[in-house]
Amino acid sequence: MAPAINAIDRVLQVLITVCVAIIVLSVAADVVARYGFHRSIMMVNELSRLMFIWTTFLVMPLAIGRGMHVAITGLEQKLPPGPRMLVYRAVLIVVAVFMAVLLVSAIVCIRQRTSEAMLSMPLSMSWFFVPVAIGAAHALLHLAAEFRRGVRTERVVDFDEGHS
Predict the structure, then answer these.
(1) Residue 127 lies in a domain
(2) Assigned domain for 156 exists
(3) Which terminus of the chain faces fewer neighbouring Cβ atoms within 10 Å, N or C?
(4) Torsion over CA of 117, 119, 121 and 122, rounded to 10 degrees?
(5) Under 8 Å between Cβ of 59 and 53
(6) Which pLDDT belongs to residue 78?
C-alpha cells in the first residue's frame, strides 16, 4: 500500500505546486493590471480562491501521512506501549469516520453544484468541492496505513538542517 500512497503523494505535490503558482501569478498579474493599467482581471479573485481551496485540501492528506497535524499526545505518551497503540488506533478510527463523512458530503455537494456556474469563469461550482473529496479519500488511505502500522508517525522538524 505504501508505494501506491507515495505515488499519489507525488502527484498531489505537483498539483499543489501548480495551484500555488497559479495563485501567485494570477494575483501578481491582477496587481500589475490594477495599478499599472487601472483595470482589474475579473476572474482572479475566484480563481485564486479556487486554487487556495485545492491547495488546502490536497495538502491535508500529505500532512496526515507525515504526522504534521496538531496532536495532543500528553495522555497517550504516558501509557505503556500496548494501551498507547490501542488509544492511537481508536483516535485514527474517529478521524477516519470524520474523513468518510467529509468525503460523502463532498460528493453530495459536487452532485448538487454541477449545474451552478461560477460568476467569472466558465466552470461549475462543483470544482470547489472536488479537492475536498480527493483530500478526504487520500487521507483515508493514509489513516489506513497508520492504523496498520499502529505507531504514530513522528514528525521531525530540524531547523538546523543544512546549516553548520
Answers:
(1) yes
(2) no
(3) C
(4) 30
(5) no
(6) 87
DSSP letters spanning 72-86: --HHHHHS-HHHHHH
The answer to whether residue 106 is domain-embedded is yes
Under a CB-based contact definition with an 8 Å cutoff, are residues 79 and 7 in contact?
Answer: no
Cell reading at 40: 482589474
Residue 67, Cα to own-chain centre: how many angstroms? 13
pLDDT tens sequence across 88-131: 899 999 999 999 999 999 999 999 999 999 999 999 999 999 99
Angle at the Cα of 12 (from 93 to 17), degrees rounded to 5? 135
Residue 58 pLDDT more than 70? yes
DSSP-derived secondary structure letter, 151: S
pTM for the structure as a whole: 0.85
The radius of gyration computed from the CA coordinates of the chain, to the nearest angstrom, equals 20
Q: Rounded CA gap, 110 and 121, in Å?
A: 17
Per the structure, the count of domains in the chain is 1
Distance CA 140, CA 101 (A): 11
Task: Name the residue range of residue 142's domain.
Answer: 2-149
**DSSP 8-state symbol, 124:** B
SS3 content of the chain, % helix, strand, coil (to 5): 75, 0, 25
How far is residue 17's CA from residue 1's CA, in Å, rounded to a whole number? Answer: 24
Determine, yes or no, domain membership for 163: no
